[in-house]
Amino acid sequence: MAQAPTGTAGDVVDELTRDHKEALETLAQVSRKSTTLLERRTLIDTVIGEVVRHSVAEEMYVYPVMRDRFDDGAEMVDHDADEHAQLERVMLELEKTDPGEGRFDELVGEMTEALRHHAEDEENEQFPRLRAHVDPDTLQKMREQVDRAKQIAPTRPHPDAPNSEVFHKLAGPGVGMIDRMRDRLSGRLGS
Q1: Cα dihedral 76, 82, 86, 88 sign
Q2: Does the pLDDT at position 162 exceed 70?
Q3: How far apart are CA 90 and CA 75, in angstroms?
Q4: What are phi and psi of 186, to 5 degrees?
Q5: pLDDT (tens digit per residue) in 42-74
Q6: Is 41 left (phi over 0), alpha (psi -120 to 50) or beta?
Q7: Which intervals hold domain Hemerythrin-like (predicted)?
Q8: What is the per-residue pLDDT for 148?
Q9: Which of 46, 126, 45, 40 is closest to 83 using CA atoms?
Q10: In this structure, what is the dihedral angle of CA atoms 28, 30, 36, 37, given to the nearest 10 degrees?
């Protein structure tokens, strides 16, 4: 999930849509099983790190806008936070599962389905509403905020941590630093 450099055309909707597409493409690579076990492990670790960063950035900068601008924003955000928590539980299990085990493929399928459902909800319902209710300059500023958040966000799932803007802004950078240190020590990609 490549982060668009500052100044690149596109707003927060473009950025998050690109993230969804890239994560689903990586999961499809893992599902093809045409790679070695090490490559599958590397791909899944990379996509987990990117999905965690994406989710944290949404919770920090997109969900507060949805909550404030949409009459049903609180319900939408609660639903999305529940989906993020479900994804985190699956990702945590994937981290613990050897790519040679049958359970690994089941978990990749669960993650793919959960992410696909989440992406479709956002791309078909929420993102068009963001574009309709938020001016282009603000959407651009939100993309820049999301990009910065991804740089400091955790890279590993923490399903017991609150999925809230305040938690991510206060504790997220510290958790992210610890995750990146663990990533470097373990040789894990995506950090």
Answers
A1: positive
A2: no
A3: 23
A4: -90, -10
A5: 899 889 989 988 988 998 899 999 999 999 999
A6: alpha
A7: 12-130
A8: 87
A9: 126
A10: -170
Q: Which of 116-125, 140-149, 176-185 has the lowest mean pLDDT?
A: 176-185
Under 8 Å between Cβ of 31 and 93: no
pTM of the model: 0.78
pLDDT at 157: 54
Residue 45 CB coordination number (10 Å): 22
Mapping DSSP to helix (H, G, I), strand (E, B) and coil, where does residue 179 land? helix
User: Which structure tokens are listed for 40?
Assistant: 């599958």
Of residues 164 and 9, which shows the higher confidence score?
9
Q: Do 80 and 121 meet the contact criterion of CB atoms below 8 Å apart? A: yes
Q: Which residue has the tokens 């510290």?
A: 174
DSSP helix/strand/coil, 171? coil
Cα separation, 98 vs 37, in Å, equals 8
Q: Is there a contact between 130 and 65 (Cβ–Cβ < 8 Å)? A: yes
In angstroms, the CA 55 to CA 133 distance is 22
DSSP structure class, residue 93: H
pLDDT of residue 187: 62
Alpha-carbon 28 to chain mean position:
16
Structure tokens at 181: 């240190």
Residue carrying structure tokens 């601008």: 69
